[in-house]
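Lecture notes, part 5. Sequence design as translation. It can be helpful to think of inverse folding as translation between two languages: the language of shapes and the language of residues. The source text, in structure tokens, appears below.
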């Protein structure tokens, strides 16, 4: 690391510096297009494997009862799998030298937030991360959108299973009704934005187009028996003139993905997340223009995000969210994968899951479909700040007792460190205290 901009980029667009990385991985955009060794180093059960496990659990319950030992054992094994999903979520950014790629993954995970409350949804969630979002970080936004909308995690979270076309065969028989949750959130949160030019009629027509999309024990399917018959007109265009189908839904999602309002919404949200609460208007417009010119290619968005002059503004307008902060702390003191992998469930929960709750970001529990708050003041409050200080102090005392804090400050923060912080770190009695001071400093907590 030789210049201040490298340190700014590592903080703004990555998860900070690891001392074992002799140089911050050059070519941020290239990180998105290279193979990540973590893909094979951290295998996971995919969505289909999780579905089959749920089918087996249901079959055991039917044949042997919910009180049978076989049922209890499999259910407990599946619950432990959720803990492993959390462990894997920690390990990926901790280990990867492709910090920008991991931050982009976290951005889209938040953009398409789900918060499962039921057992089945909790089991499926890790598949949502790895099957719907991670493989679609570098293609067209339309492909990411379609993968998310048709994943069981999103369908269950927004009650799409409860949506039945009122005039469908099933709707007439059951007097079942339309559920607008998924349609509304796609328009309001995922694409056009809260201020997008759509009406309540557009929401309803879109909800009718989505009927038929459901998830069963056999997986996600399109069921014509519950689909609203006839064409739907949304944002001035008609879809599904013939029989209702999944292809009609995809056609609208593809149009929605390249809508100019969607482009501006995505561009502004990326700028706010990575740079600051009031991004430069030219910055946002340049991202949106590049996105539209590339027919909705995400790489075009990222290119401008990273290379526009507005990306080089000073740090400090954003707070590192608790999960990001936790990973940055562990990377700073060079925590190894083995330490995290060797934790038992109780240690994983008490050492990481619980502290994240105290810091205000309970894992897998965003406050709603709109994801986590972006405002700095939402995260630096007396109780959440105390939780950060306590956790960072424990981490430093446990794993950084022999680390020279002055050298670490130079490696991790370099020219970003203030003179006052340098003096404070040099004045401590024990090494770990100096490391803790660095980790709880505003310079480290903000980006």
């Amino acid at each position: 690391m030789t210049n201040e901009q490298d340190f700014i980029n590592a903080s703004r667009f990555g998860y900070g510096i690891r001392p074992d990385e002799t140089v911050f991985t050059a070519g941020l955009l290239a990180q998105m297009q290279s193979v990540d060794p973590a893909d094979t180093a951290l295998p996971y059960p995919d969505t289909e494997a999780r579905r089959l496990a749920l089918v087996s659990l249901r079959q055991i319950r039917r044949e042997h009862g919910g009180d049978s030992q076989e049922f209890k054992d499999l259910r407990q094994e599946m619950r432990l799998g959720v803990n492993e999903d959390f462990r894997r979520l920690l390990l990926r950014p901790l280990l990867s030298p492709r910090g920008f790629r991991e931050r982009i993954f976290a951005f889209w995970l938040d953009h398409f937030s789900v918060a499962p409350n039921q057992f089945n949804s909790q089991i499926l969630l890790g598949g949502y991360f790895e099957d719907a979002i991670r493989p679609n970080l570098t293609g067209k936004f339309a492909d990411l959108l379609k993968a998310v909308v048709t994943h069981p995690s999103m369908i269950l979270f927004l009650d799409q299973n409860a949506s039945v076309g009122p005039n469908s065969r099933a709707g007439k028989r059951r007097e079942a009704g339309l559920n607008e949750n998924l349609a509304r959130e796609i328009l309001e949160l995922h694409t056009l934005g809260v201020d997008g030019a759509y009406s309540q009629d557009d929401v309803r027509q879109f909800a009718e187009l989505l009927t038929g999309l459901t998830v069963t024990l056999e997986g996600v399917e399109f069921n014509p028996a519950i689909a609203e018959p006839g064409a739907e007109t949304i944002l001035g265009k008609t879809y599904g003139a013939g029989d209702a189908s999944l292809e009609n839904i995809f056609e609208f999602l593809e149009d929605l993905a390249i809508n100019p309002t969607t482009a501006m919404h995505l561009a502004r949200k990326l700028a706010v997340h990575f740079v600051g609460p009031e991004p430069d208007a030219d910055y946002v417009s340049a991202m949106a223009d590049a996105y539209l010119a590339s027919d909705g290619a995400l790489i075009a968005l990222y290119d401008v995000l990273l290379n526009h002059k507005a990306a080089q503004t000073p740090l400090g307008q954003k707070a590192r969210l608790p999960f990001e902060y936790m990973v940055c702390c562990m990377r700073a003191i060079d925590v190894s994968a083995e330490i995290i992998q060797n934790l038992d469930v109780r240690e994983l929960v008490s050492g990481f899951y619980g502290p994240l709750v105290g810091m205000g970001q309970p894992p897998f529990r965003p406050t709603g479909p709109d994801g986590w708050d972006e405002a700095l003041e939402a995260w630096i409050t007396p109780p959440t700040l105390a939780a950060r200080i306590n956790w960072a102090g424990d981490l430093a005392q446990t794993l950084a007792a022999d680390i020279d804090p002055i050298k670490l400050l130079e490696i991790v923060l370099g020219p970003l460190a203030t003179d006052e912080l340098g003096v404070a770190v040099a004045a401590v009695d024990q090494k770990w205290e100096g490391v803790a001071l660095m980790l709880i400093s505003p310079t480290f907590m903000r980006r």
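The translated text above is only one of many valid answers, since several sequences can fold into similar shapes. The beta strands are 213-216, 219-222, 232-234, 237-239.
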